[in-house]
Amino acid sequence: MKKLDPARIERKLRIMSELFELAFQTKRFQLRARHPELSEREINHRAYALIEKGCR
User: Fold this and answer.
1) What is the 3-state secondary structure of 13-29?
2) How many CB atoms lie within 10 A of CB 43?
3) Which residues contact 35 (CB under 8 A, 6 or more apart)?
4) 46: closest CA among 14, 34, 17, 56?
5) Average pLDDT of the chain?
6) CA neighbor of 35 nearest in space, from 43, 44, 24
7) What sign has the CA pseudo-torsion 46, 48, 52, 54?
8) CA-to-CA distance for 50 and 25, rounded, in angstroms?
9) pLDDT confidence of 29, banded at 50, 70, 90?
10) Residue 19 above 90 pLDDT?
């Protein structure tokens, strides 16, 4: 069994986190442009839902 490299794991987690943040901000931008009447809370909720839907 291979030994886990903590630095490699940390790097991969950081990349995944940055990719998620990029996707979240992109979805928020798109939703805000399409639905300017929505609150920030609703935009955040819908952005998370769209990302979750895309992960299935």
Assistant:
1) HHHHHHHHHHHHHHHHH
2) 19
3) 43
4) 34
5) 94
6) 43
7) positive
8) 12
9) very high
10) yes
